[in-house]
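The records we work with from here on pair a chain with its fold. A complete example follows; check for yourself that the lines match position by position.
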Amino acid sequence: MIHEILKKYWQYDAFRPLQEDIIQSVLAGRDTLVLLPTGGGKSLCFQVPTLAQKGVCLVITPLIALMKDQVEQLRRRGVRAAAIHSGMNWHEIDITLDNCIHGTTKFLYVSPERLRTDIFMERVKLMDVCLLAIDEAHCISQWGYDFRPSYLQIAEFRKLIPTVPVIALTASATEPVKHDICEKLEMRDPRVFQATFARPNLSYSAFYEENKDARLLKILQNVPGSAIVYVRNRRRTQEIAQWLSRQGIRAEFYHAGLPNKQRTDKQEAWIHNRVRVMVATNAFGMGIDKPDVRVVVHIDLPDSLEAYYQEAGRAGRDGLKAYAVALYSQKDLLELQRNITQKYPPVQTLRRTYQALANYYKIPVGGGEFERFDFDLQEFTATFGLPLSETHYALKLLEEEGFIQLTEAYNSSSKIHIVVDNRTLYDLQLKNPQFDGFLKLLLRMYGGELFTQFVHISETAIGQKHYAMEADVVKVLQSLHDLGMLVYDKQRTKPQLIFLTPRFDANMLPINQLEVEAKQATDTQRVEAVAKYVAHQKRCRTQLLQNYFGENTDNECGICDNCLNEKKKEQPRPSHTTFRKDIVKLLAFSPLTPQQIVASFGMMHQQAAIDTLKAMLEDETIEYEEEGRLKLR
C-alpha cells in the first residue's frame, strides 16, 4: 500500500534508503527518531504513513515559510493540508481547526508556541490524531545549535494524545543531542534511524580569502547553474546581489526583513530559474524543494557545523555533482568568537534587565506570575537607557531560563522602506509640507538604510519624539504609504511579554549559572569546530563532517579540495608543452575568453592553464580580439 501511495502522490517507483523502514516503524506505532541529511526525504517519512491510515498528522515546525511551502506542495499533489500561524486571524484559525476535527484535513502544520493556546488544546482533544511529527527536532535540545524553549512544551502536549506515536526528524545531530531529543520528548523505546552524513556527489571546499567578492565571481563563472550565496548581514545580501547583477549574473537577495509577498516572489523566481543566484541570510532555504542547486557559497561562516551541513546540503539534491564552498578570513574567525560573547551577557546584565522589566510594569516582588503585557523593545530600552542588542540577548537568555516568555510577534515589529530616491522624496516633501518634519524625524531615527531595505520601527518611540499619540503616528505612516513615498508593513499583533514565575528580587534571581556556562561552552566548542573545519588543509572534508557527527570512517570522498590537493601531489603534473598543445587545439575551432579556456582544464589544473596562457601571450603565440577573446596569432 505504501508503494502505491508513493507512486500516486509523488510519482516515485521506489523509496530512498531507510525511508521504507522508517515508515514501517511509524505504522507499527513506534516512537521514531530520524536523522537524514538535507534533501534525504525526511518529509515522506511522516507523510506516507499518514496517508496510509485514518486521521490527521500534527506537524510541529518552527518556521512559517517552511509550513507554507510544505502545505502548498501537498495541496499541489491533491492532499488536504493546512497551517496555523501568526499571520491568521481568529476566524481563520477556528475554521482550520474545525476542518481537522471533521476529517477533511490530513496534515496540520503548527508552531510549537501554538500548542499552549487554549483553543488548540481544547480542539485537539476532538481530533482523530494518528501521528505527531516534530520537524527540526534538534530545537528541543539545549545542546542543539538552534535551541527553542517552546519546543520543551511538546512533551506536556503529548499527554493530551497519549496513545499517538511521535516521529522526530532532523538533518544533523550529535550523540548528546540525539539522547536529549529522546529524553525531552519522553519517547517510549524509540527506534533510531540514521543515514550516513556522506554526500558522494557534493564537493566541499574552504578557501582563505580576503577579496571574497572576486573569488565568488570566479566560482560562479566556473560552476554554471543555480546557486545560493549565504551571508550574515541583511544589507550585504542586497549589495552582493546588485554587484553580481552588474557583472552579468542574474541575482536576487533575500532576508527575513522583507515583506512576505516580496520573499515569495523572489523565491519563486529562483526556483523556476528566472534568477540564477540567491544571495541570502540563513532565513532562506529551509524546506525549499529545489534539487538542481549546483553550488552553495558561504561568504560568512555560520556558528556551527550543524548549520553549515544543512545549508551546504541544499546543493546537489538531485544526486548530480555539486559544490559547497566556504570563504573565510581571520576576521571571520574572530567574529564567531565575538558572537558567542554577545549571546551570553554577564549575569549583572541579566539582573539589570530583569529589574528594569519589573520597574517598567510596576510589578512587586512575589507578584506578576502569568501576567501578560504589551512589549515594545525599542521603547523599553529607550526608557531605561539600555543598549538594544545587549538587551535583546539578555531577554532571550531570561526566556531560556524560564523567567519570561516572548510571543511570536516579538520578532515581527512594524517595518518601513522608503521606495523613492532622495530627489523624488524632496519633491514630495515640497508638495506635502505637512509631512516634512515627520520624514526628517524618520531619517534621523533610522538613517539612510530606509532607502535600501525594510527597517524595523517602533510607532511608540516615533510618537514620543514627534510629540504624538501612537494612533496618530500610524495614520501618518499610512498616509505616506498611500502616497507611494514608503511602504509601511504594520505589525499585525502587539508583542507580548509574559512573566512565567512570581517576580523575584533581581539580586536573588535564581539563574542557573552552571547551566548557562555549560551552554556557552557548548557554543564555543561549535565555533571552534567550524574554525578547525575551514582551516584544515589535509584531511578529507566529508570525513571531518562525519567525524563531528560521530560517524567514524576511513573512506575519503576523493572530490573535496583537500582530497584533490593530495591527488595532485601524487600525480605527475602535465607538462607545459601539453597545456600549450591543448590550448592551440581549443583555439583552432574559435576564439574563446580566458575564463572559458581555463574552465576547460578543470579545477585541479586552473593555475597551470593560467600560467601557460600568460606565457603564450608573452611569446605572441596568441593574442586578444577587441571583444576580449583570445585567438591564435
In short: The two ends are 68 Å apart (CA to CA). The domain at 2-194 is CATH 3.40.50.300 (Rossmann fold). The chain has five domains: 2-194, 202-328+536-563, 338-411+495-521, 415-489, 576-632. The mean pLDDT is 89.
